[in-house]
Amino acid sequence: MPAKSPETRLGLIDAMRAHFEAGCTEVLSDQPVNHFAAEIQQAETATPSMIQGSMQEAPQADIVTAQPQPAETPIAPATMPVMPNSDEPAAGAADSQNLAAAADSLSALKQAMQGFEGCALKKTAKNTVFSDGLEGAPVMIVGEAPGADEDRAGKPFVGRSGQLLDAMLHTIGLSREENVYIANTIAWRPIGNRTPTPEEIALCKPFICRQIELNRPKLLLFVGNVSSKTLLQTETGITRLRGTWHNYRINEIEIPAMPLLHPAYLLRRPETKKDFWADLCAVRERLNTIK
Question: What are the chain's domains?
C-alpha cells in the first residue's frame, strides 16, 4: 500500500480530532453495517402469516356513518409565522457593532465579547480567544480563527503554526513580549477547524475592527486568507495579495498592512517559506522607516 502524503495524513488527523471532539469515540463493530439494507431484507423475508398477525393485533376503528352537516362559513387558513432567518445575522451584526463601538478600551472590548451570545460558534468553543502579546505594540498580527490548541489555551497562535510564526518573527526582531500584539478575525473556534462562514465573519468583524482601532498599531500583518480578504474587503486570494503593501482604513486611521501566508500553509508546503521570508524582509524594512 503506497504511503499517504503529508496532506492526506493531516486531513485524517483533523477528521479524527473532529470526531473525537463531537463525542464519536466508541466503536460498535469492526465492519460498517448498512442498516438500510438490513431493513429491506427484513421486509422481503416477512411471511404472510407475520403480516396477517400484525394486522390482527392492530386496533380496529369504530365505523361511524357520516351525517350531513349544515353549511358553515369557510374559515381562512391560519397564517404561518415567518421565521426571520435571513434577518438574524443582520440583527446579530448590529448587536456586535453596537457592543464594539461602546467599548472604550481593549479590556472593555474583551468583556463585551465574552458576554456576546449572538455567534453560534461561542456555544461550542471552550474559550473566547481575544489576544496575546503586548497591548499598544507597533506591530499587530491578525489571524483567522482559533484552532484546538488555541481554544484550550485561550490565546491565538500557540500550536504548531504559532510556534513556526514565533520563530520566523524572531528572525526580524519581533516577539509577543516586546513589540507584537496578536488577535484573530474570529474569536471562537469553528468545530473541526473549518473555514468560518460569511455570516460568522460578518458577526465578528466589528469586534476585530474595533480591536485594531483601540490598539492603534503602526503596522498590520494579516495572516491567512480569511483575515486578509475580510479586512481588506477584497475577493482576491492570499497567494495573490501577499508581497504587496495595502492600506487598512478605519474612521480617521490609516495603517500599512501586509498580507502573509498562514503558517499552517507553510507546514503543508515547506517550499513556500521563501515567500514568507521575503514578506518578512519587507516588514523589517518598513519598520526601520517608521521607528
Answer: 89-290 (3.40.470.10)
